[in-house]
Amino acid sequence: MPETVEYSIFRGSESGAIITETVKHTIQPNEALVEISHAGLCGADKLSKTKNIPLGHHGAGIVREIGCAVQHVNIGDRVGFNGLQNPCGDCDYCIGGKEQYCTQRDHFEKVGSFATHAVWQASMLIKLPEGLESKYAAPLMCGGAIMWEVLTTNDVRPGDRIGIHGIGGLGHVAILMSSALGCDVVVFSNSQSKRHDAMAIGAKEFHVTNDNVPETPVAPVQHLFWCRDGPPDISNGTIYVLAVGLETVSVPMHFVVKNGIRIQGCSSASRKTIRKMLRFVRLHEIKPWIMTWPMTADGIQDAFKALSESKMRYRGVLVGECGLA
Length: 325
Ligand SMILES: NC(=O)c1ccc[n+]([C@@H]2O[C@H](COP(=O)([O-])OP(=O)(O)OC[C@H]3O[C@@H](n4cnc5c(N)ncnc54)[C@H](OP(=O)(O)O)[C@@H]3O)[C@@H](O)[C@H]2O)c1
Ligand SMILES: [Zn+2]
Ligand SMILES: [Zn+2]
Hints:
binds zinc ion; 9 helices; binds NADP nicotinamide-adenine-dinucleotide phosphate; 2 domains; alpha/beta; seven-stranded mixed β-sheet; single chain; globular; Quinone Oxidoreductase, Chain A, domain 1; Rossmann fold
């Protein structure tokens, strides 16, 4: 007899208030109920806050129930998850390790991680390795996953001069990972106050920008990771656009052609990438810098406030009851 479970979720609203809602769900054969211990607050969540959808799209927790066909995880397992669910498993993207681009996949608006629990397609859950605390694993399921994906699937090599623009949740993980990979890391930030932190975690140069433009000329980079909102700088190299901005950007095609510029969009990551990323961060003892709040409507609102006031250093994490133990 399939079990029906009841739990609380937090969703956005037009006014921006955080709404608490009770959800009932009958667990299907291939699903698992996860009690959420930690969920990361990402720049992308700012877009969800004023929509009537469940909030949060990545996190970590403990499996509490499984459907009758689930073999991949067991009750009691510590798992992580990003927003990706129901890729078809059969298209070129899915079998080529790029399931995040499967046209059949569900978008993350359906299930949120700002909640006491969530029901996920069990095969999309990733067991967390011993020795990596869930409070660090949770934020890595989004920012860590996408940064590992762009750094390792785009011909970025040790010694390459790479630029990282915008030092928030994504940007600081980009510095940690790329310096561990042996890259020459050049940071661009509108916040002079982040200089010390950036240099402490592996940057070799730090350039203050005014409205995203460096105050003094900077030698070209081979790869530029655009980790902030606003139109990207396309003056040299390959530009990896990570920000989920809604603006339309005009691109001077003659300049792009003449200078061999590449513009590469990048979103999310496959389970294969996430597993490798988790092994790498354990090996190199990489930990995101986090600030924590309780997983309550007030806690979520306070975390959003810190994010919008640029006070986050560098990733907010909401902590559920089982994360306090
Ligand atoms: N492609 C993907 O899979 C993926 C995954 C996660 C997030 N994202 C997107 O990537 C972007 C960055 O995410 P995040 O989680 O790192 O966000 P975040 O923590 O808010 O950091 C963004 C950074 O942008 C700069 N910034 C802050 N306010 C700004 C403003 N009003 N205008 C322009 N820049 C501002 C700040 O950097 P400085 O102080 O250094 O200037 C800030 O630290 C967002 O657009 C997010 O939606 C994409
Ligand atoms: Zn995210
Ligand atoms: Zn597919």
